[in-house]
């Protein structure tokens, strides 16, 4: 069985591929910072829920566990979030929706370099973390096979 067939390894490889594509898009945004009428682009965030649902091995709670409701989680208190609900802070939704650019140059360019650099730094940090996690898991599996 190849290592990429393991759900965890496959998920990490998918995440790393997504981050590589995002890095290219962010680099294009920075390269076009002076292009008239250029709008900053970003790729769709990786959906962890769909990534898990598409995995080859189903997650089991064990033989003694009760079946979960259709939403996947039981809501035991009215203050708990249910499936599909989002948290609110001060009455405003706390979802990570992309905001419209607040700065537009006279030429119509809406690339904010500081914002793009922050995104690139976060992407780089996430990539380094995922790469290190992947390497640690590979080392652990190699040690277990010895």
Blueprint (SSEs and pairs):
Layout lengths: L6 H25 L16 H6 L34 E2 L2 E2 L19 H33 L1
Antiparallel strand pairs: 1-2
Helix pairs in contact: 1-3
Strand runs, count: 2
| Largest sheet, strands/sense/barrel | 2 strands, antiparallel
Average of per-residue pLDDT values: 75
Broad structural category = mainly alpha
**How many DSSP H or I helices?**
3
Termini gap: 16 Å
**Unreliably modeled segments:** 59-71, 86-98
β-strand amount: under 5%
Spell the H/E element sequence: HHEEH
**Spatial sequence of strands, sheet with the most strands:** 1-2
Radius of gyration: 21 Å
The geometry reads as extended
In percent, how helical is the residue content? Answer: 40-55%
Characteristics of this structure?
mainly alpha; two-stranded antiparallel sheet; 3 helices
């Amino acid at each position: 069985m190849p290592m990429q067939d393991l759900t965890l390894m496959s998920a990490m490889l998918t995440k790393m591929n997504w981050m590589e594509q995002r890095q290219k898009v962010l680099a294009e945004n920075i390269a076009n910072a002076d292009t008239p009428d250029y709008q900053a682009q970003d790729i769709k965030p990786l959906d962890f829920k769909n990534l898990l649902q598409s995995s080859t091995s189903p997650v089991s709670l064990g033989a003694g566990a009760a079946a979960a409701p259709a939403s996947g989680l039981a809501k035991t208190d009215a203050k708990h979030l249910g499936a599909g609900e989002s948290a609110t802070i001060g009455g405003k939704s706390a979802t990570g929706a992309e905001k419209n650019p607040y700065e537009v140059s006279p030429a119509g360019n809406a690339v904010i370099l500081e914002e793009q650099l922050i995104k690139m730094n976060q992407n780089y940090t996430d990539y380094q973390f995922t790469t290190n996690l992947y390497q640690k898991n590979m080392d652990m599996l190699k040690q277990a096979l010895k």
